[in-house]
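Quick one, tokens below. Sequence please?
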């Protein structure tokens, strides 16, 4: 081969690599130089060839495996449009580079056959090219036909057989031109690369600046948004707080209003209940008394007629003289009104005084009686056990007495032991004290210093204790003051309610709004009635079974205790009484049940402030509720309601030709009277009464039905049982049972609203249906006399008589009042209800 080291177009790749490594630069292809500057794509220097075309274009030729060759078939060559004069592709000279890559690829894959090159790789194209070997030898490449492979010998011969002299000058010029163009192209490429890098850097910096500005802006917007949200949140919270405070205030006012209404309602119901009881007792009188009553009524009717005639005559005469005597009459009426008010005030004061005295007398009597009973019970316990009729009760009593005796024996033994231990301790302490005194005498000086220090500490402790006690007393005074203020507010509210003249209110209301419903009238009247007084006892308007005899409450307590023992004697249980009155029933019931360690949490549902104060004196730890909604939901409930449902408001429905209408309360002059409502109320009629005859009157109590549903739901969800004791028939009947009681006498229910206890019979049949519809079980419905008999009231009566023979007649009358059919025995009923899977109690056989 010819030596081409002096050729100006020669590029020494190895020298270029060494020069770049000495300058610490990366290889050309890693710096983005065109064609890699003689480097392979995997950064390893290899021997390279360059093909320099006549126009100076330099093309890298990858090294080939000498053992392989490349075959270009005619179809592949035809696919590359080539300028035959310059051997430069028509597409800007890019095809030789692709061809080189294709040749390199082909060399890797291997050819289909043919001779191998000696030590170079090449590709063949049409036109004239110069082949520069790694050692600098330049050789003209002859034009090859498609698919031809030049063997190594032929290639070597072609290079050595050229006319070196004829090509020398032309080759130098072309090489110099190619080198200059290559350098210029290289410089332009380097400049373009640097400009591109600077542009990319500038764009990156601008993008980074824009990103930082966007982030700063986003942060500012986020902070502003957070600030605005915080302000909006604070504003919403303030508005929500104000709204909640307003709602709480409105709720408190509504609750207070509801409480006052409920108190008035309860009062009206109690008045009605007393009236019904009086009517029942009056109906039970002998025929002679009934005949005398009818004669008296006829006589009274005649007298009333005469009175009305006289009044009519007097009225006519008065109308004729009204013009002349107007001023005198007004003056007389004013004086009469003042006199009546004075008399009423004096009467109220006298009644209150008598009531207080009667209560104090009753309390003292009850305490004395309880004391005597306790002494008598201790003396005659064995005799009472021997004569007990009810086997279960006798067994329970014997067990309780044995337990009490064992406890008493254990207590006496414990006291004796404690006494001995105390005496021994005192003796030892005395000896120790004597020794300590002797020792203290010897160590007086040291002890004096210690005592001084202790005294100083004690003084400091005493001072701190005094300060703490003063703070505690101040807090207690504040609490007492707040309690007194609250009590005064309740008293003021009750006084305000009591001062309202309901009759006058209705006289003003009805002409404006029209007739009102009987349920509204009954609810408001009873609420005012119960809010203004204690209606129970001889000094009140009526008396209930617990006030008649302690036997009633005691047997109810035993009923609950037996049920509680059957369910495992759980300590987690609530005792609830609806309308507890003076708390007499609960006092007797819990006292008798306590013998079986029955000690539940006590809850009273009571709305009357006056009765709540009485109840708190007997049960300071009791929790009061306005209704069932605030009762706890965590434990079973044992509920008792004695004469509670009868005071709940009722509706009276009358069947007419065009359907059912509600009985309303209207006005006739200044007197209240019953009138028929205009609207039809067929939807309020129970299914069994839908087809009743014209003129039929029935009673229904939505309030009682709702209360029964709530009790049944509670028992289903929490477990427990309920006793509902009241008067009414076993099955629903038609007709009016509305009544009012005042001073233990029946009065017109519409004549004294707010001053009489208004009640109606309880529909026990409907209450039992509602209990079952809401998931509870009905134990049974029994007459009060029979229920008390099955509970063993006779045994208890005999025991009481033995304890106090002087009171035997009184105890007998009390027994008769509770048991006889013509008194409370048949009129009053007992309804038992319990939760699912709870045992049934005694008394319903």
């Amino acid at each position: 081969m010819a030596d081409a080291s002096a050729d100006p177009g020669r590029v020494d790749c190895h020298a270029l690599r060494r020069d770049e490594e000495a300058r610490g630069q990366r290889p050309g292809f890693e710096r983005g130089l065109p064609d890699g500057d003689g480097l392979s794509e995997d950064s390893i220097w290899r021997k390279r060839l360059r093909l320099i075309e006549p126009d100076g274009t330099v093309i890298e030729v990858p090294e080939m495996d000498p053992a392989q060759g490349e075959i270009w078939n005619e179809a592949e060559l035809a696919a590359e449009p080539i300028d035959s004069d310059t051997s430069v592709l028509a597409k800007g000279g890019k095809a030789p580079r692709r061809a080189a890559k294709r040749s390199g690829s082909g060399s890797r894959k291997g050819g289909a056959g043919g001779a191998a090159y000696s030590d170079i790789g090449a590709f063949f194209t049409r036109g004239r090219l110069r082949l520069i070997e790694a050692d600098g030898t330049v050789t003209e490449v002859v034009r090859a036909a498609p698919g031809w492979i030049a063997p190594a010998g032929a290639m070597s011969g072609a290079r050595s057989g050229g006319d070196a002299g004829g090509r020398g000058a032309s080759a130098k010029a072309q090489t110099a031109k190619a080198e200059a163009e290559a350098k210029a192209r290289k410089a332009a490429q380097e400049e373009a690369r640097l400009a591109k890098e600077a542009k990319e850097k500038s764009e990156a910096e601008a993008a980074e600046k824009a990103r930082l500005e966007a982030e700063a802006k986003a942060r500012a917007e986020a902070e502003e948004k957070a600030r605005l949200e915080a302000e909006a949140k604070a504003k919403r919270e303030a508005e929500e707080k104000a709204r909640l405070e307003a709602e709480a205030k409105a709720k408190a006012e509504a609750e207070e209003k509801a409480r006052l209404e409920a108190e008035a309602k309860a009062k009206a119901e109690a008045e009605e209940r007393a009236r019904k009881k009086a009517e029942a007792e009056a109906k039970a009188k002998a025929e002679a008394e009934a005949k005398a009553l009818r004669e008296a009524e006829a006589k009274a009717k005649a007298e009333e007629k005469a009175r009305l005639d006289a009044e009519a005559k007097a009225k006519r005469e008065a109308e004729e003289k009204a013009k002349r005597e107007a001023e005198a009459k007004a003056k007389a009426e004013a004086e009469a009104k003042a006199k009546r008010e004075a008399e009423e005030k004096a009467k109220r004061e006298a009644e209150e005084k008598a009531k207080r005295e009667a209560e104090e007398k009753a309390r003292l009597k009850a305490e004395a009686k309880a004391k005597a009973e306790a002494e008598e019970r201790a003396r005659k316990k064995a005799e009472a056990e021997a004569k007990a009729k009810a086997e279960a009760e006798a067994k329970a009593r014997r067990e309780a007495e044995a337990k009490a005796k064992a406890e008493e024996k254990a207590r006496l033994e414990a006291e004796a032991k404690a006494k001995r231990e105390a005496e021994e301790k005192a003796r030892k302490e005395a000896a120790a004290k004597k020794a300590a005194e002797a020792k203290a005498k010897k160590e007086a000086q040291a002890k004096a210093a210690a005592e001084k220090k202790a005294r100083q500490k004690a003084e400091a402790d005493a001072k701190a204790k005094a300060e703490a006690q003063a703070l505690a007393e101040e807090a207690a005074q504040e609490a007492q003051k707040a309690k007194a203020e609250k009590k005064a507010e309740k008293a003021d509210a009750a006084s305000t309610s009591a001062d309202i003249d309901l009759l006058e209110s209705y006289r003003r209301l009805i002409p404006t709004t029209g007739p009102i419903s009987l349920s509204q009238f009954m609810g408001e009247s009873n609420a005012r009635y119960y809010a203004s007084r204690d209606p129970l006892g001889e000094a009140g308007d009526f008396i209930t079974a617990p006030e008649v005899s302690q036997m009633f409450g005691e047997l109810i307590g035993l009923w609950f205790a037996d049920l509680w023992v059957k369910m495992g004697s759980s300590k987690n249980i609530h005792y609830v009484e609806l309308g507890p009155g003076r708390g007499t029933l609960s006092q007797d019931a819990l006292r008798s049940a306590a013998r079986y360690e029955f000690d539940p949490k006590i809850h009273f549902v009571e709305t009357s402030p006056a009765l709540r104060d009485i109840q708190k004196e007997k049960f300071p730890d009791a929790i009061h509720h306005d209704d069932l909604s605030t009762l706890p939901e965590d434990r079973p409930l044992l509920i008792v309601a004695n004469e509670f449902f009868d005071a709940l408001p009722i509706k009276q429905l009358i069947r007419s030709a065009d359907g059912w209408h509600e009985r309303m309360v209207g006005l006739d002059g200044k007197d209240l009277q019953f009138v028929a409502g205009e609207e039809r109320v067929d939807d309020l009629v129970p299914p069994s009464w839908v087809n009743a005859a014209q003129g039929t009157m029935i009673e229904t109590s939505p309030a009682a039905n709702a209360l029964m549903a709530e009790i049944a739901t509670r028992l289903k969800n929490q477990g427990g049982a309920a006793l509902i004791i009241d008067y009414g028939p076993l099955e629903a009947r038609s007709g009016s049972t509305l009544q009012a009681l005042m001073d233990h006498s029946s009065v017109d229910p519409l004549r004294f609203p707010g001053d009489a206890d208004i009640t109606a019979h309880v529909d026990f049949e409907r209450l039992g249906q509602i209990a079952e519809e809401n998931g509870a079980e009905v134990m049974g419905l029994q007459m009060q006399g029979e229920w008390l008999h099955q509970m063993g009231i006779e045994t208890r009566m005999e025991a009481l008589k033995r304890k106090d023979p002087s009171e035997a007649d009184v105890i007998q009358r009390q027994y008769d009042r509770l048991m006889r059919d013509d008194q409370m025995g048949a009129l009053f009923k007992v309804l038992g209800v319990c939760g699912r899977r709870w045992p049934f109690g005694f008394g319903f056989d």
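Confidence is low (pLDDT under 50) at residues 28-47, 64-127, 142-162, 490-498. The longest helix spans residues 164-283.
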